[in-house]
């Protein structure tokens, strides 16, 4: 069974990069959850544990979802968004075009996620003046289907939505645009996507809650599909987990972010000298040890601020800072807001959705 993954990085003049990933039969050099790259069961287990923890932490803070039936000709424009945007085309065809002129063709069954909310246009094959997606009748999907376009066949059915994960740094690991085509109708991703279409087509009791949960599962499935496609050196720290040395250090940092880790101690635990460890870590992870550790602590702190009622002082201790003042300075430098303002802003955004 093969699942097709197309990756596009904004600004890359070479255009889309095509991948073909075998689900359950990893390709040579692949570091996904079915592959033991270094021939060590411990490293394979470590990879699974860290990825499981990552997936378990994902919570979406409100997921607007819209169901469109589009008749040709049609052209929709979406401005820059703070969230990840996704489109699932269950019927018909479409083209997504970005500001740099790069275009992605879509056919029935394609799922596209614009990870960092870059502005783009989606059209039926003949360019006309675009209508803003945000100016259409934007009733949530649980209130029915939205019809738009010229009314000519062939029609296209599109589900559009937004992913706003609490652990927003998860999106930073992904390429700018991810295009997945499920392998078969029995594929889990295909099952979830088709269920979203049917669930959103008519009003039912509890429909809003069902769609919200299904969208959360969809996001996890998209992440899992992408992780399975990674080669060594791709995906930053996710790709580095399977390294026999750096993987051990990453597991220690993820399990105990508050510990006062030094390069020497992590290197010793990983089985390398200080200099060799620091160089290998920076090469595989993409950043120095101290910067990664700080980012991990700030990610943990942000997640706790969003998802718990713990005091800022308590959170400071839990991520390795002895005083609230010291923690607040580092947090503000990293996120651009004080911990209190960050918590208030996230709460305000959730109420507004």
Tell me what the structure shows.
The protein is α+β, with helices and mostly antiparallel strands and 353 residues long. The chain has two domains: 65-228, Regulatory protein AraC (Jelly Rolls, Sandwich), CATH 2.60.120.280; 246-352, Homeodomain-like (Arc Repressor Mutant, subunit A). Helices cover 40% and strands 21% of the residues. The chain has twelve helices and 13 strands. The chain has helices at 41-57, 169-172, 188-200, 207-228, 237-240, 246-255, 263-270, 274-285, 289-307, 312-318, 324-335, 339-352, and strands spanning 2-8, 17-22, 65-72, 75-78, 84-91, 93-98, 103-107, 111-114, 120-123, 131-132, 146-149, 152-163, 177-181. The strands form two sheets. An eight-stranded mixed sheet has the order 2-1-13-8-5-12-3-11, with helices on one face. A five-stranded mixed sheet has the order 7-6-9-4-10, with no helix packed on it. Strand 1 and strand 2 (17-22) form a beta hairpin. Mean pLDDT is 80; it is low at 20-40.
Task: Just name the CATH architecture of the largest domain.
Answer: Sandwich
**CATH topology-level fold name of the largest domain:** Jelly Rolls
Rg measurement, Å: 22 Å
Largest sheet: 8 strands, mixed
Summarize the structure in short.
It contains twelve helices and 13 strands. It is of the alpha+beta class.
Features:
five-stranded mixed β-sheet; eight-stranded mixed β-sheet; 353 residues; alpha+beta; Arc Repressor Mutant, subunit A; 13 strands; globular; Jelly Rolls
């Amino acid at each position: 069974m093969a699942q097709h993954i197309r990756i596009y990085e904004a600004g890359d003049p070479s255009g889309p990069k095509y991948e073909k990933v075998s689900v359950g039969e990893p390709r040579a050099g692949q570091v996904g959850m079915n592959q033991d790259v270094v021939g060590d069961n411990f490293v394979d287990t470590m990879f699974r544990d860290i990825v499981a923890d990552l997936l378990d932490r994902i919570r979406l803070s409100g997921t607007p979802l819209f169901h469109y039936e589009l008749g040709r000709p049609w052209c929709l424009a979406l401005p820059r968004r703070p969230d990840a945007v996704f489109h699932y085309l269950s019927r018909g065809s479409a083209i997504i075009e970005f500001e740099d002129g790069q275009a992605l063709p879509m056919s029935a069954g394609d799922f596209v996620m614009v990870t960092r909310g870059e502005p783009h246009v989606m059209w039926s094959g003949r360019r006309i003046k675009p209508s803003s997606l945000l100016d259409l009748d934007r009733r949530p999907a649980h209130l029915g289907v939205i019809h738009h376009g010229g009314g000519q066949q062939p029609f296209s059915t599109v589900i559009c939505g937004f992913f706003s994960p609490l652990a927003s740094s998860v999106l930073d690991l992904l390429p700018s645009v991810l295009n997945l085509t499920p392998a078969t109708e029995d594929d889990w991703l295909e099952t979830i996507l088709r269920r979203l279409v049917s669930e959103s087509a008519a009003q039912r009791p509890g429909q809003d809650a069902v769609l919200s949960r299904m969208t959360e599962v969809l996001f996890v499935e998209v992440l899992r599909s992408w992780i399975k496609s990674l080669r060594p050196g791709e995906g930053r720290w996710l790709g580095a987990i399977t390294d026999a040395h750096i993987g051990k250090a990453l597991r220690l940092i993820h399990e105990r972010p508050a510990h006062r880790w030094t390069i020497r101690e992590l290197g010793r635990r990983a089985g390398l000298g200080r200099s060799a460890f620091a160089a290998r870590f920076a090469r595989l992870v993409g950043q120095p040890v101290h910067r990664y550790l700080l980012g991990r602590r700030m990610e943990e702190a942000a997640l706790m601020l969003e998802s718990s009622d713990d005091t800022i002082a308590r959170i400071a201790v839990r991520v390795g800072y002895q005083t609230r003042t010291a923690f607040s300075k580092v947090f503000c430098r990293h996120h651009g807001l004080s911990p209190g303002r960050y918590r208030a802003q996230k709460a305000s955004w959730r109420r507004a959705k």
